[in-house]
Structures are given as C-alpha cells and as structure tokens.
From TrEMBL:
Protein name, as recorded: Alpha-N-arabinofuranosidase
Keyword flag Disulfide bond: no
Record-linked InterPro entries: Alpha-L-arabinofuranosidase, Glyco_hydro_43, Glyco_hydro_beta-prop_sf
Molecular function in Gene Ontology: hydrolase activity, hydrolyzing O-glycosyl compounds
Amino acid sequence: MALLPNPIVLQRADPYVLRTDDGYLFTGSYPVYDRITLRRSKTLSGLQQAEEHTIWHKHESGTGEMSELIWAPEIHRVNGQWVIYFAAAHTTEIDPVADTFQHRVFCLTCDDADPITGEWVERGKVDTGMDTFALDATSFVHTDGHQYLIWAQQDLNIEGHSNLYIARMENPWTLATKPVMLSKPELDWEKIRFIVEEGPAVLKHGDKIFVTFSASGTGPEYAMGMLTANADSDLLDPANWTKSSKPVFTSDETVRQFGPGHNSFTTTEDGQDVLIYHCRNYVEILGDPLFDPNRHARMGLITWNEDGTPNFGTPQMDTRWTPATTDVLPADGHLDVDETL
C-alpha cells in the first residue's frame, strides 16, 4: 500500500474532519488553547496550506465560563445546522476534589450556509446532569432520525478521570434522555499514568456502529480502544455494547509514531474510509505532554475484516515535513513548513 502524505496538519491535536459538498472542514485543539478555528480544503493533503480562520475566541479570563483551556472542538452538521462542541474551563487550576481540570462541554451553532464566514451563536453549557469534569463531546444522527451525543465525564464515585456516556438529544445543546455510561477505564492498557477514557468517535459500517475512544496518559502510552453495537439495537442500553479487550491502534516505534489517538473519521476524495488522528514522532518530551505542541494530525486508510469490523492497521511514518523535536509554536499559532521528503 502506498504511503499517505502525513502529517496533514501540524501542531493540531484532537483533529476533527468533516467532509462537505465544498470540501473538507478541519478543526482541532489550538496549541495555546484560546480559540476555535476552521480551515477548508478540497483535499485532505491540502489542509496544512489552507487558510485558518478563527470563528470563536475564549471569553476574557476571570469572566466565568469558557475563559480558559479551550479543548477539542468538533464541527457537525445536524438537521441543516452547523454545530460545534468543545470543552472549556473557567480556570487553569486543578480541582482539588476531582484532581482534574474544571472543564465542561459547550455548544455553538450557526444557521448560515458557510460556517467559516457565518455567525456563530453561543448556546452555553450542555447540561449533562452531572457537574463534574466533562469533555470531548461528539455527535451523530442515527437511522432512527434522532441525534445522539457521546462524551467523556468524571464520576467521583468511579476510579479515574473520565468515563464514556451517551444520551439522545432534544436539540444540539439539550439532552432528551438521562446520560447512560457506556464504558469506564478498567483494562490495564486504559490505566497507564492516567485512568481515562476520552475522545469518542463514531463509525458506521453495515449493520454495526463502532465508537472508538482513547485511553491512558497523553504520552506514548496513549492508544485507541473500540466499542461495538448492532445498529438496530437500543444504543442507550450499555448491555448492547461490547468493548475490545485490547487497543485497536497503538504506538509504532519502528516508524517513530507515538501516542496515536483522539481520532475522527471521514472518507478520502475517492470514497475510502479514513482514520484521522494525532500522533507525535518523538518521546523526548520536556514537561507535561499535554502542553507539548507537536501532536500533528495524520490519516490512515481503514480496511474491513471479514466479520465487518474495522482494521486500523498501524500508524504510518512521516512522509512530508519533518519538524524537529525543538519546534515550538510561533506567536501566530501557525508553523510554516516546506516539503522535505
């Protein structure tokens, strides 16, 4: 198999790609965690050079909600409306009780045709019924016509920082049902450095629906797991979901790709299923890995096993742009690069 052009966007962790009639929309965590940006390209490989537009900026520090640590935005199209979910805190301090940052999930919507030039409206916090650390909301409209939300949140009565929850939505910012816990970190590979399940992403194929997620710390131990359910089952019943016993996508030292995860799904220009994920190409991290900017967005083709489950393979080596370990984000938040391979 020919190597894909990787990475596709530099210094953008938690990458989310949405394919539209006008091309690919891309967003991800901006490394200084102060804004939400969008870029658009006709091709996946053209996203790095695409102009980046800031469509929302954090509130001034000290003004309350949505004023610090803007994480992991995702853009969705829900019943003709653009919707962005993201996590934000009101402080950079760790909650002394929960031992986590103080994030909650928030929602923006846009009714204009173009989400880049359109007006975005703050819909506020998505009330999950639990006032604890919450992040990484993703959404899908199922064949039953209902919108569902899946996200990560902490339950102080369960060991760890976050579990995965699902609910059906009344509208993009309001739950219609009580949250149901789909999964919690309980396997050894989900509890390295941190006890975490986060970053859910939805993939449909045949009569199955898959939810991938990421677990453990944000260094080379970070890896992807997967939940599986029949598409015609009650998705709000955790008994209908099965979790993989082993990670389905992990680091590969032979090609210097470490900590793959927090993924999304789209298709290539010719319609092949593709995995979008972030990864580092080194392990020599100074300080907290969370604040190292060089988690780059990458892609990999998905093949399908005979039983209808996805095969994500292994991370591919870098084929273009080789930013050094010491590269840091410039003031404008955009690292200019030249083709090197």
